[in-house]
Design brief:
Blueprint (H helix, E strand, L loop, with lengths): L15 E5 L6 H9 L10 E2 L2 E2 L10 E4 L11 H11 L4 H15 L14 H13 L5 E5 L7 H18 L2 E6 L2 H7 L2 E6 L2 E6 L1 H6 L4 H6 L6 E10 L2 E6 L2 E4 L2 H10 L4 E5 L5 E2 L8 E10 L4 E7 L3 E6 L10 E5 L6 E4 L8
Parallel strand pairs: 1-6, 1-7, 4-5, 5-6
Antiparallel strand pairs: 2-3, 7-8, 9-10, 9-12, 10-11, 12-18, 13-17, 14-15, 14-17, 15-16
């Protein structure tokens, strides 16, 4: 058994780098190895040009913010933030300056005399951040620091972290299972599953060109639709049969299918790329509206096809009800093709 396997990553200096994946994928283990809290069984860990495999955690010049706030309940906010500095024998004057600078940055100026029990979850998380900031480390390591906050506080704290990263100009490595956090905060995202790296790149690139079926359905909300498909011919032209209909394929897509030689094909379509088909359109999915979920600004509509089902994101101006018939179209360039056997993307 292994927690991580063949993980090879380079984190750009001063970037906001996100490790993303479902529970148990190995992302926290990777972070703890960087921190020096876990030992890698093999491989090399470098910070700048220095190999740190055998360097104790306290000497790696890193600061870690945990999922649990890990604050001392009997100490004030001021003393919690100052604790690490006192352990490192900083002068009282320097401690006061650093603590008040961090408190100002995080909006904790008026809370310095309070105890953790008198604070909200968001305020306690900011105290934990403040304790890390005052050390002025080379790298910040954050292990799901927002998971204990409510939805509104998560949005607010995300924005604060982005501004904090910009202000401090140091490297952040941030672990999360929340794809929204990864997409909105990360400059680069590495997605893990089963202890193995699936893809790494800018968030939009991972969203637009997922490397495999797992990524296609993990990134995005609602998830990408996936239908069983097979190469076919329609009136002598190359096509793909999926969902009970034939979709004509441009020559480059057909060529890619032939080169890949996949015995079984999975067709992926993002919900936002499915639109009501114009009258008379031949290449369209036909089905019946099954579920309508209104989100105020848009509606997520589940449509049952002759073979399978699709979820689409539609404007609330388009009135649909369960039981309605609907036809949906998708532009060929918006199709994602995967080898159903290996799960790999077909380019």
């Amino acid at each position: 058994m292994y927690a991580l396997r063949d993980l090879n990553l380079e984190v750009p200096d001063r970037s906001f780098f996100v490790l993303l994946g479902p529970s148990g994928c190995g992302k926290t283990t990777a972070l703890r190895i960087v921190a020096g809290l876990e030992e890698a069984s093999e491989g090399t860990l470098q910070i700048d040009d220095r190999v740190v495999n055998d360097v104790p955690a306290k000497d790696r010049d890193l600061a870690m913010v945990f999922q649990s706030y890990a604050l001392y309940p009997h100490l004030s906010v001021y003393d919690n933030i100052a604790f690490g500095l006192r352990m490192r024998k900083h002068s009282g004057e320097e401690i006061d300056r650093l603590v008040r600078d961090a408190a100002s940055t995080l909006g904790l100026d008026t809370l310095l005399k309070r105890k953790p029990g008198e604070l909200s979850g968001g305020q306690r998380q900011r105290v934990a951040l403040g304790r890390a900031i005052v050390r002025r480390p080379r790298v910040f390591l954050m292990d799901e620091p927002l998971s204990n906050l409510d939805a509104q506080m998560r949005v607010q704290t995300r924005a604060e972290l982005i501004k904090l990263h910009r202000r401090l100009g140091v490297t952040f490595i941030y672990v999360t299972h929340d794809q929204v956090e990864a997409m909105t905060m990360g400059e680069r995202v590495a997605v893990l599953q089963g202890g193995e790296l699936q893809q790494v790149g800018p968030p939009q690139e991972v969203y637009d060109r997922p490397a495999n079926l797992f990524l296609a359905q993990f990134i995005g909300s609602p998830a990408m639709n996936v239908l069983e498909a097979e190469a076919a011919q329609l009136e002598g032209q190359p096509a793909l049969r999926a969902g009970g209909v034939f979709l004509r394929l441009p020559a480059p897509i057909w060529t890619a299918l032939q080169v890949a030689g996949a015995k079984r094909v999975a067709l992926g379509i993002r919900p936002e790329h499915l639109t009501p088909a114009p009258a008379g359109a031949a290449d369209a999915f036909e089905g019946q509206v099954d579920v309508v979920e209104s989100l105020g600004s848009e509606q997520h509509v589940t449509v049952t096809l002759a073979e399978g089902s699709l979820v689409t994101r539609l404007s609330v101006d388009l009135r649909v009800q369960p039981g309605d018939s609907i036809r949906l179209a998708v532009a060929p360039e918006r199709l994602h093709l995967f080898d159903a056997g290996t799960g790999r993307r077909i380019e």
